[in-house]
Description:
The protein is α/β, with parallel strands linked by helices. Helix content is 32%, strand content 18%. It is globular, with a radius of gyration of 24 Å. Ligand NGO is lined by residues 299, 336-337, 367, 384, 409, 411, 422, 458, 460.
Amino acid sequence: xxxSALSSLALLSSFIIGILGSxxxxxxxxxxxxxxxxxxxxxxxxxGNQFQLRHDMNIYVEAGNQEVALAGEYLASILGPATGxxxxxxxxxVPPPKxxxxxxxxxxxxxxxxxxxxxxITDSGIDLKAPDAxxxxxGIATLRQLLPPEIESQTIQDxxxxxxxxxxxxxxxxxxxxxxxxxxxxxxxxxVVKRYIDYLxxxxxxxxxxxxxxxxxxxxxxxxxxxxTTIGGSTEVGxxxxxxxxxxxxxxxxxxxxxxxxxxxxxxxxxxxxxAALASYPELNFDNRSPELYTGTEVGFSTLCTTRxxxxxxxxxxxxxxxxxxxxxYIHIGGDESHVTPMEDYIPFIERVQxxxxxxxKTIIGWDEIAHAKLVPGTIVQYWEExxxxxxxxxxxVRVLMSPATKAYIDMQYDSTSRIGLHWAxxxxxxxxxxxxPATFEEGISRDDILGVETALWAETITDLKDIDYLxxxxxxxxxxxxxxxxxxxxxxxxxxxxxxxxxxxxIMGIGYYPSDxxxxxxxxxxxxx
Length: 530
Ligand code: NGO
């Protein structure tokens, strides 16, 4: 018998069993394995029935674990607005009655790791289990995509909330699945950053890298060096008013991300890309004079005076304050394009800064140029341009974060007609953004050398959420899949269909996506909210 005939037989028999086994089951059979999920899960087993969310349901969570309860609240916040259901989060020490949602920990399946999960939807309820609350949150992202797109609405929708039944067992390929947002070239307020975090959570990213300082602006309050923000934060590319996050606002971002199991990775770029700092404090400069604030887009002209002791006091204070408000594992020290710092000054600077970061207990990440220095064990080299630099890092025994500009920079235009974006590295259409494998991309960088993948959204040409949406969508979900799904399961033709199926969600969420003709948008012509 042909496999397709076999599977239809299986589907038919499970349908019949479903009808016989459940007296309140009156829905047509559906196929869980045909659902358009991004990232594509490791394994999906369909049993051919449907389950409906009902107004009298609750979300039961394993008692005695705050993180599990938090995941329950997070799920309630996703399901609540569109269903209008008053979903109570209830702690329980035994599995709940039939027809409910149950979130609990289960560490027996070791292969799942910290972020893996098993989501079992039957006609008697939803059972989501994981070794860690992080996995529950990843499973929630899956559940969300299994529901009709109207679930993304912020107003009550009068529809049947149907789910296909079956079991999804899933875990990530890479430990680090990140997205960088440049808030320095143009400043984005807290609510925009939160919205970006929401996008990341939808596609199982787990790191948000914030590029907090550059020539054009300093964006994080440092109490011991207040002029960094009062002066350095006062403008942006094009001469707009800029802005910065107070430490309290930054903590709000961190907390919002943490609930979604996304770790914030803050970056202070140095010794180059520091004009905003130099304009704020003349003593950081060679001649004790402050340059003008800078609102252009050229790079590589500024440097801290790396031979001055006060510069290290500055770095220690900044990193110290930042580490104190950053619960995550990493501090990013930049290190890119320090074209006016002589190499004999650059290397000892990076080495001293590494010691300063290490003293805070954080792990160092830096752009690939930092591999010129002697790296401390555990440091992460973020490959963006130079394979040679990344290989230098690997030769020193450290791991690489893959962000090749030609594939992973979503500030690049889709093509020459894109209304915003740069193209110095490449034009990156949606298929090109998806169709690459970090583990084979660059000679001498193999799977074992790679910690993960990060897409970067630099902000020279983007000023608001509308611009972010246009460059991030529909490319962003693809990086989520590259980071999460096994390379062998990834296929552009199939992905293009699944991406096209996200269209209704984008529109309901008001995401102004770029209507690329490379995507199989399904029957509807794309109508981005431009
Ligand atoms: C480069 C540069 C950034 C630019 C970006 C624009 C790195 C690591 N340094 O990437 O300053 O904003 O390109 O695409």
